[in-house]
Design a protein that fits this description.
- By secondary structure, the chain is mostly helical.
- The chain contains ten helices and no strands.
- The protein has helices at residues 2-14, 18-25, 41-48, 50-73, 78-93, 106-116, 118-135, 138-156, 160-176, 178-185.
- Helix 1 (2-14) packs parallel to helix 5, helix 2 (18-25) crosses helix 4 and helix 4 packs antiparallel against helix 5.
- The longest helix is centred in the first third of the chain and has 24 residues, at 50-73.
């Protein structure tokens, strides 16, 4: 029974918006009302620069990482672990503390992959980095990394429940980036 409490705890942790908190603490404009309107690290970089973006990225990754590490430390079964992974991710997308209007989930998804397996997280991050270095388009790098993540989960972790969970997360990430995909196809994404 105690294991199942980790799922709502993960959602609540995911609901903490690093972008909004960082912008308030640094005296920056609200990311929901400025730039792209997305409370995520990329938009925070537009509003406040690299330092604010780095702090936001770290905060968003940690809110995915910490609930998963706690679940693993408590040796939960793979179903509960999968639900904790998904709940932390979902909390970022639909945060209860911020009118259910959250970010796209890239950094939080990286955090949960690192929590599931360090190698998994490093491979996902390396994929993002390589694609970004090749094209200098963050959204393209995120889309490629998201698309390949279920394959990496299958190869590195091999747990069916986690493969399904990360497939769903990847599909949601693609859906949340639909405007970026349209701009990429039109050659307008930078």
């Amino acid at each position: 029974m105690m294991d199942w409490l980790l799922v709502p705890l993960a959602y609540l942790t995911g609901s903490v918006s690093s972008a909004i908190i960082v912008c308030k603490m640094m005296g920056l404009a609200d990311p929901r009302e400025n730039g792209s309107g997305n409370p995520g690290a990329t938009n925070v970089m537009r509003i406040g620069g690299k330092k604010a973006a780095a702090i936001t990225l770290l905060g968003d990754a940690l809110k995915g990482l910490l609930p998963v590490l706690l679940a693993k430390a408590l040796a939960v079964d793979s179903l509960v672990l999968s639900l904790v992974v998904f709940a932390a991710f979902l909390g970022h997308l639909y945060p209860i503390f911020f009118e259910f209007k959250g970010g796209k989930g890239v950094a939080t998804s990286l955090g949960v992959t690192l929590g599931v397996a360090w190698l998994l997280g490093l491979v996902v991050a390396a994929t993002w980095f390589v694609v970004y270095k090749m094209g200098r388009i963050s959204s393209l790098a995120a889309l490629v990394a998201a698309t390949l993540t279920p394959l990496y989960v299958w190869l590195i972790v091999g747990d069916v429940k986690l493969i399904i969970t990360f497939t769903v997360i990847s599909l949601i990430l693609l859906w949340r980036h639909k405007s970026n995909i349209q701009r990429l196809l039109a050659g307008q994404e930078s």
